[in-house]
C-alpha cells in the first residue's frame, strides 16, 4: 500500500508501477461463533490495493475504458463524484498517467481521504447541500453536470453508469475469489453503492457456479434496493439513487444494516483480530452473521471487504465521534459482535 506521507516525493514511474499492481488481494479466514457452532468466513481484503480500497480496481477500469475509446488527451480534466475511496484511486491513476483530476465531494468525506487526494494533486470541489433523500450523491452529480457544462475539457468517468465499473470486477475480483477459494463458493456477501462490485462479481460467479447464493449488503437509509431513504453516517456504502448495474437476477437477498451495527462489528473485529476495516466491511460482517444464524447449512463463505480502517481514524475508530451515535445500541451490538467474532 502507498505511503501517503511521502507520496509527493515518489517518481511518476513508481506511481505507474503502483497503479499496475492493483488486484491479487488476499483472502483472510476468521472464525465466527454462531448458534454455538464455529463458522469459517473468508474476508477478501481489498485494503491491500495500492490506495487501500476496492475502488482501485474500479478507477483503473474507468480510465482504461476512456483511453480505449480515445476520449482522453494530455489536456483532459478527469472529473468524478466520490464519497472518498474512488477519488483517491482516480487521483493516483490520473497522476501516474498525466491527467488532471477533480473530485466532487461532500462533508461526509473523511479528512484522511481528502488529504490523500490533495497529496496526489487532485482538485477538490465540495458540495454543501444535502439532496432530497438526505444524502449528498444527487447534489454531487448536479455539480458534476454544472462543471461539465462550464468547461469542455472535463471528461466524466461516470462510475454510476459506465459498464467498465462492473466489468472490471467480472474480469478480476470475481475470478480471484473463485480461484482463491479453490472453486468452492457457496455464498458471497458484497456491499453496494454504485452496484458495480456486486454486479461484476455475481455475474462471474453465477457463470461458473449457478447455485451460488449472492447477498447484497446495503446501509439502512440507502435506496439502492428501493427502500425508504433516511440519513446515515456510513460512507462508501449505500446511495441516494437506484443502481444502474444491479438487476434482480444478480442477487438472492438484500440486507440492510444500521450505522451502530456496522461500527460495532468494525470495533469487534479490530479487538479480536487486530484487523481494522471500514464501515462497509462492518456492514458486510454484520449481515453475514445475521444470515448464517438462519442458514447453518452454508459453507465456503466469502465477505467482500472494500477498504481498511485507516481512513476512519477520526470517525469510526474515534470514541468521541462514536458518542454521537445511539451509544446504548452501539454498546449492545459491540458486545454481541465480541461474542460472535473469535480470535
TrEMBL record:
Species of the source: Dictyobacter arantiisoli
Metabolic or biological pathway, per its Swiss-Prot or TrEMBL entry: Siderophore biosynthesis
GO terms, molecular function: transferase activity, transferring alkyl or aryl (other than methyl) groups
Annotated gene: sbnA_2
Enzyme Commission numbers on file: 2.5.1.140
A GO biological-process term: cysteine biosynthetic process from serine
Subunit field text: Homodimer.
Alphabetical keyword list: Pyridoxal phosphate, Transferase
Summary of the function given for this chain in its UniProt record: Catalyzes the synthesis of N-((2S)-2-amino-2-carboxyethyl)-L-glutamate (ACEGA) from O-phospho-L-serine and L-glutamate.
SUPFAM superfamilies registered for this protein in UniProt: Tryptophan synthase beta subunit-like PLP-dependent enzymes
Keyword flag Transferase: yes
Assigned protein family: Belongs to the cysteine synthase/cystathionine beta-synthase family. SbnA subfamily.
Enzymatic class: transferase
Coiled-coil residues: none
Needed cofactors: pyridoxal 5'-phosphate
Name of the protein: N-(2-amino-2-carboxyethyl)-L-glutamate synthase
Family matches, as Pfam families: PALP
Domain Tryptophan synthase beta chain-like PALP residues, every copy: 20-305
Amino acid at each position: 500500500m502507498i505511503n501517503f506521507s511521502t507520496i509527493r516525493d515518489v517518481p511518476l514511474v513508481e506511481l505507474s508501477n503502483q497503479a499496475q499492481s492493483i488486484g491479487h488481494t488476499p483472502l483472510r479466514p476468521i472464525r465466527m461463533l454462531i448458534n454455538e457452532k464455529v463458522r469459517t468466513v473468508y474476508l477478501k481484503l481489498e485494503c491491500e490495493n495500492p490506495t487501500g480500497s476496492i475502488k482501485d480496481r474500479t478507477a483503473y477500469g474507468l480510465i482504461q475504458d476512456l483511453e480505449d475509446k480515445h476520449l482522453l488527451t494530455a489536456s483532459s480534466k478527469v472529473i468524478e463524484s466520490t464519497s472518498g475511496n474512488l477519488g483517491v484511486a482516480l487521483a493516483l491513476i490520473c497522476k501516474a498517467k498525466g491527467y488532471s483530476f477533480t473530485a466532487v465531494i461532500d462533508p461526509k468525506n473523511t479528512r484522511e481521504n481528502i488529504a490523500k487526494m490533495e497529496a496526489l494533486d487532485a482538485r477538490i470541489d465540495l458540495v454543501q447541500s444535502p439532496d432530497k433523500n438526505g444524502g449528498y450523491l444527487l447534489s454531487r452529480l448536479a455539480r458534476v453536470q454544472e462543471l461539465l457544462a462550464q468547461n469542455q475539457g472535463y471528461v466524466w468517468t461516470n462510475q454510476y453508469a459506465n459498464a467498465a465499473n462492473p466489468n472490471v470486477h467480472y474480469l478480476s475480483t470475481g475470478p480471484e475469489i473463485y480461484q482463491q477459494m479453490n472453486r468452492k463458493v457457496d455464498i458471497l456477501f458484497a456491499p453496494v453503492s454504485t452496484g458495480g462490485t456486486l454486479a461484476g462479481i455475481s455475474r462471474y460467479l453465477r457463470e461458473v457456479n449457478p447455485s451460488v447464493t449472492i447477498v447484497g449488503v446495503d446501509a439502512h437509509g440507502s435506496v439502492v434496493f428501493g427502500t425508504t431513504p433516511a440519513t446515515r453516517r456510513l460512507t462508501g456504502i449505500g446511495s441516494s439513487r437506484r443502481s444502474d448495474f444491479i438487476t434482480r437476477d444478480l442477487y438472492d437477498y438484500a440486507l440492510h444494516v444500521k450505522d451502530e451495527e456496522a461500527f460495532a462489528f468494525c470495533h469487534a473485529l479490530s479487538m479480536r483480530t487486530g484487523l481494522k476495516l471500514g464501515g462497509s466491511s462492518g456492514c458486510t460482517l454484520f449481515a453475514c452473521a445475521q444470515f448464517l444464524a438462519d442458514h447453518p447449512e452454508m459453507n465456503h463463505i466469502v465477505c467482500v471487504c472494500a477498504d481498511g480502517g485507516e481512513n476512519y481514524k477520526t470517525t469510526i475508530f474515534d470514541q468521541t465521534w462514536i458518542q454521537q451515535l445511539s451509544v446504548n445500541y452501539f454498546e449492545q451490538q459491540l458486545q454481541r459482535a465480541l461474542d460472535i467474532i473469535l480470535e
